[in-house]
Design brief:
Helix content: 25-40%
Largest sheet: 5 strands, antiparallel
Order of helices and strands: EEEHEEHHHEEEEHHHH
Radius of gyration: 19 Å
Number of helices: 8
Number of strands: 9
C-alpha cells in the first residue's frame, strides 16, 4: 500500500466480512479510507492464486461499465507478500439479502419487488459488456465452450474422489441430467462475460433502495454464454414459500417468468432455450457446491458448511430432475 500511495499510517478496525464459504474477506481502514481485502482461504486450492488474479482483472475490465461491481483499487499477484495473491477493492455500502433483510426492505413489498427485478437487470448489463473493449477477450476459450460444459463438470465431480476423506456425495440423477443436457444442447449462442455463480448470496443490495449495489465473488467469471447467469438465478430463485438461499422467501419477489421477461428487456439474446440453461445451472452449481462438502470431510472446510452445501447440491439435482420430467 505504501508503494502504491494508498494512504499513510497503520491499518485499523480490521474485521472479517461474513457470508462467504471459501475466500477470505477483510474490511479495514487506513487514513480514513475503507478498503476490502480479498484473498484465498488458508487451505488454498491449486488454482486459488490464479483465481485472485483473474478476479482482479475482471473488476479492472468492468471499470466504467453499468455493471454494479466493487471498484478495484490495487492487486498483488505476488504470493511472497501474504502467502497468496490478493487484491484491494472499494467497500460497498449494502447488505447481503441471503443473510436477512433490514428495514426498509423488510416491511416494504414494493422495495423487495424492485430488488428482485434489479437482479436480472444486473446480469443483463454484464451480458452487454464489450469483451474486447474491456480487455477480457482472452479471459476464457469461447470456441466449444457450450459443448465442453457437461463433460467438464462431470470430470470436476470425479476429481473430488482424490480428496482424502471424501466418501462420495450420493447425488441423485447426475448421469440422467448430463444425458438430457447433451441431447438438447442449443445449436448456437453468443459469447460474453459471465459471472458464473450469480444468485442472491453473491450480491449486495443498496441500503436505501431496491437495487443491486454490487455483484461480488467473481471467482468463476469467464467468457461463456451469459444466459447461464440467468439460469443460475432461476435455479436459486425462491419459489412459493421456499427459502432457497438463506432466509429469503418468495414473498413480494417477482415470479421466475417475470425475471426472464425483465432480462429480455435488457438483452438481445435468443431466450427460446432458457430452460436448458436452467438445468445446466442446477447441474453445474450442484457439482461446485459438492466440492465444499468434499473438502469439509477432509477437514479443509467447516463441517457444518459442507453439510449445508451438500444438501443444496442434492436439492439442485432434484430440481433439475423435475425440470426434465424425470
Amino acid at each position: 500500500m505504501d508503494s502504491q500511495g494508498l494512504g499513510k499510517g497503520p491499518i485499523e478496525a480490521a474485521e472479517r466480512i461474513a457470508g462467504g464459504t471459501q475466500n477470505v474477506l477483510l474490511r479495514f481502514l487506513r487514513a480514513d479510507r475503507a478498503y476490502v481485502l480479498r484473498r484465498p482461504p488458508p487451505h488454498k486450492r491449486p488454482n486459488s492464486d490464479e483465481t485472485m488474479r483473474r478476479e482482479a482483472r475482471v473488476l479492472a475490465g468492468l471499470a466504467g461499465s453499468d455493471v454494479p461491481h466493487p471498484g478495484l483499487i490495487a492487486a498483488c499477484g505476488d504470493v511472497d507478500v501474504l502467502g497468496a495473491a490478493f487484491y484491494l477493492m472499494e467497500a460497498v455500502e449494502g447488505f447481503n439479502p441471503s443473510m436477512g433483510l433490514p428495514e426498509p426492505h423488510l416491511s416494504d413489498p414494493a422495495m423487495r419487488r424492485s430488488m428482485g427485478l434489479s437482479m436480472p437487470d444486473a446480469i443483463a448489463a454484464l451480458g452487454r459488456v464489450d469483451v474486447a473493449a474491456a480487455g477480457l477477450a482472452d479471459l476464457g476459450r469461447p470456441d466449444g465452450w457450450l459443448e465442453r460444459q457437461v463433460e467438464r463438470w462431470r470430470a470436476h465431480l470425479a476429481s473430488y474422489d482424490a480428496i482424502e476423506g471424501y466418501r462420495g456425495g450420493q447425488i441423485p440423477g447426475v448421469e440422467q441430467v448430463a444425458t438430457w443436457l447433451e441431447e438438447r444442447r442449443p445449436a448456437s449462442w453468443t459469447p460474453g462475460v459471465i459471472h458464473g455463480d450469480f444468485h442472491f448470496a453473491n450480491v449486495l443490495i443498496a441500503p436505501d433502495r431496491g437495487a443491486v449495489a454490487a455483484i461480488v465473488d467473481w471467482e468463476l467469471a469467464t467468457i461463456g454464454d451469459p444466459l447461464l447467469d440467468l439460469g443460475h438465478l432461476l435455479a436459486t430463485w425462491p419459489a412459493g414459500g421456499s427459502t432457497v438461499i438463506g432466509g429469503l422467501s418468495a414473498v413480494a419477489l417477482p415470479s421466475p417468468d417475470e425475471v426472464i421477461q425483465r432480462y429480455a428487456l435488457g438483452s438481445c439474446r435468443d431466450m427460446s432455450n432458457i430452460g436448458w440453461y436452467h438445468v445446466l445451472a442446477c447441474y453445474r452449481l450442484g457439482i461446485i457446491l459438492e466440492g465444499t462438502h468434499a473438502r469439509a470431510q477432509a477437514g479443509q472446510a467447516p463441517r457444518l458448511v459442507g453439510d449445508r452445501l451438500h444438501a443444496h447440491a442434492i436439492s439442485l439435482f432434484e430440481q433439475a430432475l423435475g425440470l426434465i420430467g424425470a
